[in-house]
Write a structure and sequence with these properties.
- By secondary structure, the protein is α/β, with parallel strands linked by helices.
- It has eight helices and eleven strands.
- It has a seven-stranded parallel β-sheet with strand order 3-2-1-4-5-7-10, with helices on both faces. A two-stranded parallel ribbon has the order 6-11.
- Strand 4, helix 3 and strand 5 form a beta-alpha-beta unit.
- Bound molecules: nicotinamide-adenine-dinucleotide (NAD).
- Nicotinamide-adenine-dinucleotide (NAD) binds next to helix 1, helix 3 and strand 5.
- This is NAD(P)-dependent oxidoreductase.
- It comes from Agromyces allii.
- InterPro entries: Epimerase_deHydtase (IPR001509), Lipid_A_modif_metabolic_enz (IPR050177), NAD(P)-bd_dom_sf (IPR036291).
Length: 291
């Protein structure tokens, strides 16, 4: 396929672009930052630029089969709330609108684990969390992710051929980030804000690739996280200490993810293959990675 990736210069985007190219796709990166030669410089808040660059760019491409929309201010607190809202909401509307005008019906878009209720100052309804309870955004950043998912639900109702897959990524990590992981164990509250989850960027890219391949008309949302937590301490102990009284559903396993990826496994064929435990060694991680 010829695939437009927005935000392809970013932390997740770089790996997504490389992965899709390795798989044989033709990839065009639309981003406002990045090294010359690796992107078409576009401000996605400017609809004129968006529709033009998605339709074609001289010397680059003359139309796309699919869009992977990753560009965003990627967290709360990086810009003012109003700037985060404006950038992310407008960029996403512009990308979705350009796809509509140009007849592109395959979209994979970056949502976020934050819609699950991060930082869980209000405890989750049950653990492991999944996609089955209504969104609980607790920041403007997360509110926009929720509004984007909601917008997609309406757009697929307007166009029965349209496929929008929202991937609710956990905290994205590169291999260099893993050296810090063994220290998390000392304080169970340090990473409680996302239920001790993470996603290796390479597995995030795998999820994008699988979502593109599995795209069916309609909207769907998937939590995308690593198969394990950032902790060596066992799940039962962490949950009892930090979230006493929260309903525990099923067997938590020792270090298995508490952000359920069962739906992504089942419907996308997603299976994380990277763990921080492989990177820092089983000794520092307190034992072998869970199966
Ligand atoms: N990093 C995480 O832990 C995490 C977790 C969950 C979801 N996400 C989501 O995944 C996506 C990618 O995140 P990331 O960590 O790679 O972020 P990043 O900041 O590294 O990359 C985002 C890219 O988007 C580009 N961008 C932002 N606004 C733009 C605009 N108006 N026009 C053109 N380009 C624009 C930036 O230049 C940047 O290169 C985002 O949608 C983010 O919200 C990230």
């Amino acid at each position: 396929m010829r695939i437009i990736v927005t935000g392809g210069s970013g932390k997740l985007g770089r790996t997504v672009v490389a992965t899709l190219r390795n798989e044989g796709h033709e990839v065009v990166n639309l981003d406002q930052h990045g090294e010359r030669g690796t992107l078409v410089r576009v401000d996605l808040t400017d609809y004129g630029q968006v529709i033009d660059a998605v339709a074609g760019v001289d010397d680059q491409h003359d139309g796309a089969d699919a869009i992977v929309h990753l560009a965003a201010v990627p967290a709360p607190g990086l810009m003012s709330d109003v700037a985060t809202f404006r950038n992310n909401m407008l960029a996403t509307f512009n990308v979705f609108q350009a796809a509509k005008r140009l007849g592109i019906t395959r979209i994979v878009t970056a949502s976020s684990e934050t819609v699950l209720g991060l930082p869980f100052d209000v405890p989750p309804p049950y653990i492991p969390v999944d996609e089955e309870y209504p969104a609980r955004p607790e920041s403007t950043y997360s509110l926009v992710k929720h509004l984007e998912e909601t917008m997609a639900i309406e757009l697929v109702r307007w166009n029965p051929e349209l496929s929008v897959t929202a991937l609710r990524f956990s905290n994205v990590m590169d291999p260099d980030d893993y050296a810090a992981f063994p220290d998390f164990d000392a304080d169970a509250t340090l990473r409680k804000w996302n239920l001790w989850g993470y996603i290796d960027a390479r597995d995030g890219a795998q999820a994008v690739s699988r979502a593109l391949a599995a795209a069916r008309p309609g909207f769907d949302r998937f939590i995308i996280a690593a198969a394990d937590t950032v902790m060596s301490r066992p799940n039962a102990e962490l949950v009892a200490e930090v979230f006493p009284g929260v309903e525990v559903r099923g067997d938590l396993g020792t270090n298995e993810t508490l952000l359920s990826i069962d739906k992504a496994r089942r419907l996308l064929g997603f299976e994380p293959v990277h763990s921080w435990r492989d990177q820092v060694g089983a000794d520092a991680a307190g034992g072998p990675r869970p199966a």
